[in-house]
Amino acid sequence: MMPVPESPCIDDGIERTGDQVDFKHWSSAIQQRMERALSRAVPGPALVPSGLHEAMRYASLEGGKRVRPLLVFAAAGLCSGVHQAAEQAACAVELIHAYSLVHDDMPCMDDDILRRGKPTVHKAYDEPTALLVGDALQSLAFELLAAPGLLPSAQRQLQMVACLASAAGSQGMAGGQAIDLDAVGKTLDLSQLETMHRLKTGALIRASVRLGALCGAADAADLERLDHYASRVGLAFQVIDDVLDAQASTQTLGKTAGKDAQANKPTYVSLLGLDKARQLAADLRSGALASIAPFGHGAHRLAELANFVIQRAF
Ligand code: GRG
What we know:
Blueprint: H1 23-41, H2 50-60, H3 67-78, H4 83-104, E1 114-115, E2 118-119, H5 121-124, H6 127-145, H7 154-168, H8 173-183, H9 190-214, H10 220-247, H11 250-253, H12 259-262, H13 268-272, H14 274-292, H15 300-311
Antiparallel strand pairs: 1-2
Helix pairs in contact: 1-4, 2-6, 3-4, 3-9, 3-15, 4-6, 4-9, 7-9, 8-9, 9-10, 10-14, 10-15, 14-15
The chain binds geranylgeranyl diphosphate.
């Protein structure tokens, strides 16, 4: 097992680091750092094709909780990860996430008009633009991760590229989305629902933690422990998403509430009811915390993120 750092070494954009900074300040500093990094990474309208670039920025900047980047930074902090690599990896995973939201909202999929409190990309622009925005954000993600010399070890960097590719592909997020689309109006049991979410939402959350760890000194045993943690957090994230979809308002969520029930989609709430769904999320959180217990205090940001995921209100 790697040596546990006394305090996270990642420069998170604020002077005091690590233990002296509470979760709120730490996460807010990372969110601001991400905004700057994404703004540098995504081309602006001064570059041709300006309409596409403007829409890419609309889809990826100023919005979202940045949960996946927070996981990248927390895992990189635990594993004494390389600063610049963690930032690039966090941007890459966030761009894949942004692309998935743009495509998910299109009329051929979930057909939604509101995302992150503003009109979805196909509404603010048009459908062909939304399609291209998703495509281009995905390509940009891999361009960032493949930047020459990002990590001292090219082999390690290649592992990162492969990790993100498989998480986004047919055996990850895109595969989960295919199962989701196919499930409309059908009855899924709990294990089928879990399989769908492990791919659709869980794969990218697992990749976020793994990418952070790969920026640093994690060995195979560390990676396995972190993967257990991430699987549980990923599922808890989805269970709470279902709870919020059933309970919270459109205004709080910044996206249309109650969509799943409306679309006759199976959810943790429709299968278990609200109380049992909440209990399942709490159990998953406990499992996630148990997986990282061997790291001791060095994993406190990951622990805080597990708490955040189930306590979130949107
Ligand atoms: C189109 C290939 C393709 C995949 C889409 C992830 C996904 C698959 C669709 C998103 C639809 C959705 C609401 C999924 C539930 C969980 C989820 C990923 C919610 C949105 O993520 P947050 O809450 O969003 O992290 P923010 O806006 O905070 O970034």
